[in-house]
Amino acid sequence: MGPGSPADARAENAWLRSYPFWDAYFAVVLVATIVIIVVDGGAPAGIVLLLLITVSYALWGRTAVRAPVVPVRQSWWHAAAMVILFTAADLVAPQSAIALSALIPMAFMSLRTAQAVAVMIAMFAGPAIQLMVELGSHPAVVAVAIVLGLSASSLLGVSIDRLARQNSERARLIAELDRTREELAEVSKEAGVLAERERLAGDIHDTLAQGFASILMLLQATDGRDGHVARAAQTARENLAETRALIAALAPPALDGASLEEALGRLAEGFELPVEVTVTGSAGVPPAVAEALVRAAQEGLANVRKHAGARAVRLALQHADGGVVRLSISDDGCGFDPGVVVDGYGLRAMRGRVTRLGGTVSVIGTPGQGTTVAVELPGSGS
Hints:
Elements: H1 6-11, H2 14-17, H3 19-39, H4 44-66, H5 73-92, H6 100-110, H7 113-133, H8 139-220, H9 227-250, H10 260-269, E1 275-280, H11 287-308, E2 313-319, E3 324-331, H12 345-356, E4 360-365, E5 371-378
Parallel strand pairs: 1-2
Antiparallel strand pairs: 2-3, 3-5, 4-5
């Protein structure tokens, strides 16, 4: 997509894009004011003071105007510089009052509304005194002129402030919308993956598992004296067990309305090795967290079956302080060398699922001393 596309509009803050135009406007007003002072024979000291305001803007004003939340420290430095330098410039060169058309919006962009109004009144004081003293105007006329000038400037400043706030809120809402769309896309993807896993589990159950069961029944119907037949029967049993394990891993978590603790107990009861389940603490967890923990337990038990050569397994569920829930799957098998073994597909899937929920997965193993897979998730759903 090219410039000006919806993607560009979401990626950029329109108010931020306006800052270069503001810099240009300030420069034009400054140059115009200096030209008028020169043409009108004003004091050169006024020009010097206006240039010092430009230095203040370069040092502090640009940062203050662009700050996401005002005021910042630079806002006060620049506001003080504007009041002092402009008042002095107006006293020596009354033509400097033209610069108010840039200085007043600048005050509203870098300060809160009430603070900017106070700065504006302070900067208007010099021109008002000059009208009363030098021009000999009637006080009522001067008062009306001051009220009208302050009202117009305040209206402009408030409009600038509201525009900035609305644009910032718009940018925040767009960012939230983009995050929500990403989360919904991730949830939709996860739902599609789970549906495909469930379909695949059903297909395997209806084909491979039933096929192995039929082969095993036919082999068992023989007299069993032939060693080849016995080995074929043993192979069929092992493959049937692997197929059932694969179906269990692919099927939806064993929650079905049960609690997390009950689901883990079901997994333990259906496992071919002794599994000790311990629960510490008691606290409810969100469904997504419970599902992730049951999936982690399935993956962990599947890895024990395939690789550990263990005699027993221990599932430990802990509801810790701060709303954290931890699950560990430990076995007494052969362990592994962390420097050699890399994550398989199941462990990578486990890490991805847990990471999306803000959790962590760690695997600890020592050759000959078993393996522990530890999962930690925020149980409060935060």
